[in-house]
Amino acid sequence: MVINTNISAQNAASLLMQSSNNLSQSLARLSSGSKITSPADDSAGLAVSMKLSAQIARTGAAQSNVSNAVSFNQTQDGYLQQVNSALTRMSELAISAQDVTKTTSDRALYQQEYSTLGAYVNNVATQSFNGVSLFNGDSLKVTSDSEGNTFTNLGVNLGATTYTTATSGDITSVSGAQSAVKATEAAISQLASDRANIGSNEETLGYYSNQLTSLSNNLSAANSLITDVDVATESTNYAKENILVQSGTAMLAQANAMPQSMLRLLS
Fold this sequence. Notes:
This protein is mainly α. About 75% of the residues lie in helices and about 5% in strands. Strands 1-2 form a two-stranded antiparallel ribbon. A two-stranded antiparallel sheet has the order 3-4. It starts with 6 loop residues before the first helix and ends with a helix. The mean pLDDT is about 90.
């Protein structure tokens, strides 16, 4: 037995340090909920997780873009429902103005209502959504995925000749009323086509929205397998390392006490 070099104590101290480091790592994982508390834990896993996290964030942003585009289309259709009512009434007034029993004064009253409704339709054509024109006819490129690909959202142009011809009609005469009937019919037909396009936009955007939701869930699940700690397993590791630290501390105390026995040989 030697006194200057206590090999048993050195071995015990080395094992105790290892157990203490494992205990600290286990405690960090349990408190953070993550298996990767430093790059040294899983450098490859960390790199993959960072890419997945970035894609999840981009997917969330694309989902927001699609949701806003759906709201844009819903707002358009809300206005066009009222435009449809206005045009339908205008076509009714144009037919009424052709009644041979109506006087010039009667037709003037019809014209007043007709012009008011036409002004309403023209006003709707100037409306916007968060500063973006609703009815200038421009198609919008809506981001549809995390890579920046886009979907073409078809536009509606309430300033088109088909609409302005109807809204500027003059039904103060029978011939003018006849022309107004044809103009309002054409406008209603165009409106039906425009609303069909909006419906198609909403339907397609709904598919993109569902696709992005599914993608985000799957990416999150994949990222979870890499980074999220298994609490049950890690709790078991924590208990094991805690026991090893306690026993290692006790054994180190015993190893440090062994040289004391040499004093008995000298006494």
